[in-house]
Amino acid sequence: MRGWAVTGSWLDSDGTRDLNSQCDGFTATARLDTPVAGGVLTLSGRYQDYDHGIRGPVTFASETDRQSTQSTLGSLAWKREGVSSRDTVRFGIWNEEYDFDYTDWAAAAQHANADPTYLEAGWQHDFLMEATEVNVGIELKRFEGDYDDTAMGSYSEENDATAAYAQVQHRTGDCLLCGGARLEDDDLFDSGPTWRVGATRLLNDGKAGVWANYGTSFRAPTFNDMFFPGSGNADLLPETSTGWEIGMWDTLDSGDSLEIVIFHNDYDDLIQWAPTEGGMWQPSNIGTARTHGIEVTLVRQISSRWYDEFGVSTLDFTTSGAPLLRRPRWQASATVGYNGKRDDVRLDAQYVGRRWDAVGFANEKVEAYFVVDLSAQREINDDTSAWLRANNLFDQAYEAAAGYPSPGFMLVGGVTRDL
Q: The pTM is what?
């Protein structure tokens, strides 16, 4: 397979209803696929350069703060497909540099600069047998971060992590069994192994089924969590969890489908922003937490062209410390869509219920919100299509994160052409 693609987009906006939210910049992407050594080599990249105002939270709103950001993302991947095996090799790099000009609480002009770089490499080999697939692989990751702030100080840190993993999938009759494990060696943390096992039972010739899985996970603090001047917490421990899921799905002859998932998670050393004894906020291990909930999704094919989707989820939690932030008890979504020969139209609605969030210097329950988006795409010819998207169609005033007003009505459009 051989091919290539180049895309570009430009943005020049006076901003939304909010103070100091104007933005301008561009994004460019490129991709090349070419046969190499019995496989396909894929080279891809993305560059972004944006300059925008930083309004800040409503408690400390700013008229003048500005941030410029340049980011470069590159990846190189080679994949070989065989009858009895597959191989994948990948390399990646991500670099971002941003400059932030701001005014501190004392009305003094300050400047911050950050230059983080992520490097990663990986290899995976898949053994393909009649009823069994075995995946083994290794990953190498490196992070280099430099940050300098005229008011808060600076840091320059680096970290290396190596991981090895294996996964087995085996099908016997209408049952699919799977299990996997991962072992990671991190320069900063003792991560230990993580693992997961699961099983699926197919019903009605695969149109329905039930499944369950159980496993552990590990999440390391970010570099900003640990080292950011003025708020970093170098004593953070990794967050670990154990959890299970059970679920079922059913596809009817009409094409309608229903999926129900029940989940439960237990967290240790959960990482979340919390006030210290001195009243300052910083990332902290707030203790243990337990979450459980249900997710239900229904997809209906109204006619050959029209469809709708409905989803609802509920989440309950208990903790040994502060409440979990930005985790609503109730969420719901609905979509009505039309798929024509050359036209696609979607109307999406989302409801997010009341939830805890950090408001000023305390945790408080914040109000629910409801937002509607509309999008459309038309195929002009085999190579060209035009699209239009209206976000926050009814210009609702809401805050997905407390203190940070979300954008109002926004209309965006463009043309896509395959070369």
A: 0.84
